[in-house]
Input
Amino acid sequence: AAGLGRGCYKIDSNPGAALDLAPASVTASNVFPSCFIFSGTTTAVSLTNCRSSKFYIGKEEAMQHGGVRRFTFINDAGADVTITAARGGAVATYVLDQKSAVQAYCYSGSSGADDM
Output
């Protein structure tokens, strides 16, 4: 099933969504998958804590990733979507054209900073 924890997470009509990829309390219902679909009037998404992100691996189990994690972003919205994420202590911005998709990688290296 799509949604938090597995499948693709759909962000529908949220013009400025902010997603913390490493919630303090992890359950199968609050762990983001590695796929996001933007729809409706979504125009901007901000991602934080990719370095410490958790992923869902079983019925009630989530693990923190280490190394490299691949994310897929699909824009089914009626407009371009601006994605911002941490990159080596700075902020990286990517504009995803409407009706298109892109993949990004998060590296949890030894620097202590997110890299997407």
Observations:
- The radius of gyration is 14 Å.
